[in-house]
Automatic annotation (TrEMBL), chains A, B:
Biological classification of the source: Bacteria, Bacillati, Bacillota, Bacilli, Bacillales
Protein name from the UniProt record: Phosphoribosylaminoimidazole-succinocarboxamide synthase
Species the sequence originates in: Virgibacillus halodenitrificans (Bacillus halodenitrificans)
Originating gene: purC
Record pathway: Purine metabolism; IMP biosynthesis via de novo pathway; 5-amino-1-(5-phospho-D-ribosyl)imidazole-4-carboxamide from 5-amino-1-(5-phospho-D-ribosyl)imidazole-4-carboxylate: step 1/2
Keyword field: ATP-binding, Ligase, Nucleotide-binding, Purine biosynthesis
Enzyme Commission designation: 6.3.2.6
Amino acid sequence: MKLIYSGKTKDVYQTEEGNMLLKFKDDVTGENGVFDPGANTVGLTMEGAGKAGLKLTTLFFQKLNKKGIPNHYIDSDIEEATMTVIPATQFGEGLEVICRYKAVGSFLRRYGKYATEGQKLDGFVEITLKDDERQDPPINEDALKMLGILTKEEYQVIKNLTVKIAEMVKEELIKREIELYDIKLEFGKDPDGNIILIDEISGGNMRAYKEGQYIPPMELERIVVSS
Amino acid sequence: MKLIYSGKTKDVYQTEEGNMLLKFKDDVTGENGVFDPGANTVGLTMEGAGKAGLKLTTLFFQKLNKKGIPNHYIDSDIEEATMTVIPATQFGEGLEVICRYKAVGSFLRRYGKYATEGQKLDGFVEITLKDDERQDPPINEDALKMLGILTKEEYQVIKNLTVKIAEMVKEELIKREIELYDIKLEFGKDPDGNIILIDEISGGNMRAYKEGQYIPPMELERIVVSS
């Protein structure tokens, strides 16, 4: 297998069958040793973080498949911490699509004049550019179109899929009395040109709370996978 | 007359007839003594800057009136550096609506991964919150709606008016071989609930270039008003 790309939390290989294989690492994003799903740097390494992320991702992607929501999942090998996926091309040099149910993180840092911490948000969707150097700037529909990153139609498809996927995750968490505050998704195009969910769905790309307490990624995996 | 508000570049008074009177100051926005239309602080004081801004504003608002584009202008007293305007309420605690023809300033700082300096932009409109503390964050249509600042209909009206007004300014400048790079507008609601252009249209809220050279506000006024 050929290593295509070594990311902050995953390595990406090409398989002999022409699929991609994601190797989940034990590195998580954060700053100064503290986990932060919104951070752009690897903050710390936690043994088992990769497998935990993969378990949760596998559980959610299998649920998406049952619902017919298009995504890149083929299968997983938990022991090896790898997931085989459909090859997909990203939009531009990569986008992050965020769905928010509570005002926290960068939303609050930007719009704190109009929102209080923890205020309910109605599944608000926004897109940021993956650009570490420029701190992942938010970008609107018109700019995405003008810069040739997303057509208006693609923007709508991605927004609608994001709401559906976030709603599914939210419902799954509520069953365990966990509240989803926000979630960050990535999309790509499969070889047929269909827009599909790529990357992962784990504690590493969402903020989940129980009784007002933030639940770190590995604990989230334990609660969700074991119940 | 009662002083209602003292802003960075204007003081606002209430007249006895129930209108508002804007007194243009000689203070301009910038940093460390250098003018910058995108800055949030008063950078320097230039004698005559207030009158120059008012002359240009008056010229543009009178042209808007001829075209039937709704705005707050009633009349001006150049000697006193004052403009009488219709009282209007702002949206939320104030918005800035930017129309861009060239990639410069904060657009380039945010989207430099996809745009080069001076690249042509197709009259791209974006909205930022007036919030000095948070560096005037950009905000999209959905967030403006969710936070109760603009309805979807108001967003469309403002976007359409912005394009029309920016286009008019651009045309006026082209006649003097000046190129408009970007312009920052403000809107409010008049007592009947109509959306109207408020504030000013001057060198202080646009970037204008001649033969690739930036033209400072007072020079812009001299070129445009005298020709």
